[in-house]
């Protein structure tokens, strides 16, 4: 039985030009930018946008001048691949359990980074008064009445084919579709527009992510995700390189193509029922987007 909270909730891209890339994505998917993280920008290395696709999110990050001067993971990735997929983010029902399990997979590299966030209020009321700190492996998400909270934990691409992140947010994480619960990466005001404009004219959200693995067998990569995410996901009975999540979503793992590019190389989007299809497949930011 697949846990209904175990969902592909966000895809992240890295691009040279944030405004141009975000504009192309918004036009292609008829979807709005709902958040630019001021705390990320103030850190000095990255700026970003979040585009809402139904109740999931498409993030684009762009290195700042400081990042280019210092040389960072993101600038090296751009120099190697150009604009490309950067990260897959899966929502989990219990970050305390999943964070430990994910850390044990592959080479056992452990956490790359992790943060917790707690804010007074409720979903949709903004981030005034938010506090944050570094996440410690195995900690439970704090859940106190009158607050909204979230945890994100990232893991190394060598174990999962791409930079991998798990998320738990509270409250409202179990309400789908048209979720209006807490989801910290996209801020805490996007919920206000879900009823007025639940989806655009192209897609209702992510159907699948395709990850090309470098130095890691696709079937083994699938097993790493399966063991890390824990009970509630299923490896396909006919294709051991395909992992089923909730809501009809899946993750599939493949060998790199002719160009040798690894990481997130393809994303399937649920076509909006009854709407004319704007495209079949299109490539944007080095990723192949397919309506299904």
Topology of helices and strands:
Blueprint: E1 7-14, H1 18-29, E2 33-35, H2 38-42, E3 46-53, E4 56-63, H3 65-70, H4 73-81, E5 84-91, H5 95-103, E6 111-120, E7 131-134, E8 147-155, H6 157-160, E9 163-170, E10 203-212, H7 218-229, E11 234-235, E12 242-244, E13 250-254, E14 263-271, E15 281-284, E16 287-291
Parallel strand pairs: 1-4, 5-9, 10-13, 14-16
Antiparallel strand pairs: 1-5, 2-3, 3-4, 6-7, 6-8, 8-9, 10-14, 11-12, 12-13, 15-16
Helix pairs in contact: 5-7
Which characteristics define this entry?
292 residues; alpha+beta; 7-stranded mixed β-sheet; globular
Give the CATH topology.
2,3-Dihydroxybiphenyl 1,2-Dioxygenase, domain 1
**Number of separate domains:** 1
Structural class by SSE content:
alpha+beta
Question: What overall form do the CA principal axes indicate?
Answer: globular
Hey, roughly how much beta strand do the residues contain? 35-45%
Describe the structure.
With 292 residues, this protein is of the alpha+beta class. It has helices spanning 18-29, 38-42, 65-70, 73-81, 95-103, 157-160, 218-229; strands spanning 7-14, 33-35, 46-53, 56-63, 84-91, 111-120, 131-134, 147-155, 163-170, 203-212, 234-235, 242-244, 250-254, 263-271, 281-284, 287-291. The strands form two sheets. The protein has a nine-stranded mixed beta sheet with strand order 2-3-4-1-5-9-8-6-7. It is globular. The protein starts with 6 loop residues before the first strand and ends with a strand.
């Amino acid at each position: 039985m697949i846990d209904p909270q175990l969902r592909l909730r966000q895809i992240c891209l890295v691009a040279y030009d944030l405004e141009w890339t975000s504009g192309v994505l918004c036009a292609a998917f008829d979807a709005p930018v709902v958040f630019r993280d001021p705390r990320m920008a103030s850190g000095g290395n990255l700026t970003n946008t979040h585009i809402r696709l139904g109740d999931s999110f498409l993030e684009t990050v762009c290195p700042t001048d400081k990042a280019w001067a210092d040389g960072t993971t993101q600038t090296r990735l751009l120099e190697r691949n150009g604009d490309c997929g950067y990260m897959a983010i899966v929502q989990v029902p219990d970050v305390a359990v999943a964070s430990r399990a994910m850390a044990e997979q592959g080479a056992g590299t452990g956490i790359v980074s992790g943060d917790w966030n707690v804010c007074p209020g409720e979903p949709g009321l903004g981030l005034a008064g938010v506090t944050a700190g570094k996440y410690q492996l195995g900690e439970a998400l704090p859940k106190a009445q009158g607050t909204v909270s979230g945890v994100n934990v990232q893991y190394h691409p060598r174990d999962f084919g791409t930079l991998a992140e798990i998320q738990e947010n509270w409250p409202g994480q179990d309400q789908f579709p048209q979720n209006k619960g807490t989801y910290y990466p996209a801020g805490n005001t996007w919920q206000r527009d879900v009823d007025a404009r639940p989806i655009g004219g192209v897609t209702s959200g992510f159907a699948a992510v395709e990850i090309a693995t470098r130095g890691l067998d696709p079937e083994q990569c699938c097993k790493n995700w399966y063991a890390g995410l824990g009970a509630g996901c299923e490896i396909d009975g006919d294709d051991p390189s395909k992992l089923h999540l909730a809501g009809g979503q899946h993750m599939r793992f493949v060998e790199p193509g002719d160009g040798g590019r690894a990481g997130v190389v393809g994303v399937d989007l649920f076509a909006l029922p009854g709407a004319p299809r704007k495209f079949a497949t299109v490539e944007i930011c080095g990723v192949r987007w397919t309506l299904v």
